[in-house]
């Protein structure tokens, strides 16, 4: 399955962005769809997990600020990012572990 992420951009600290990840086919069969990110010069890290029935899990660094959601009818997973901080800067990727499928990433830059 191919994943297309979008919605990144440049935003000031304290601002918001909404990322979208559209899959090339139905995502309803996948229990787990994640968002990960990679800051410049650092390893890729887990950000959020979205499962069926509203089951979610977040990295401590984004808990309370980011919200993952999914619309299986649209084959889309979202990441609502609020109260953004400069340390949130990086390329954000959606990922389906079951098929080891990564999206191409969308760049988020948060200025101080």
Poorly predicted runs are: none
Radius of gyration: 13 Å
**SS element count, helices:** 0
**Strand count, sense and closure of the main sheet?**
7 strands, mixed
Question: What is the structure about, briefly put?
Answer:
The chain has about 110 residues and is mainly β. It has strands at about 5, 10, 15-25, 35-40, 45-50, 55-60, 65-70, 75-80, 90-95, 100, 105-110.
Description:
By secondary structure, the protein is mainly β. Helices cover 0% and strands 51% of the residues. Strands 2, 4, 5, 6, 9, 10 and 11 form a seven-stranded mixed sheet that branches. A four-stranded antiparallel sheet has the order 1-3-8-7, with no helix packed on it.
Key words describing this protein structure:
mainly beta, seven-stranded mixed β-sheet, 112 residues, single chain
SSE topology sketch:
Layout: E1 3-6, E2 9-12, E3 17-23, E4 33-38, E5 45-50, E6 56-58, E7 66-71, E8 76-81, E9 90-96, E10 101-102, E11 106-111
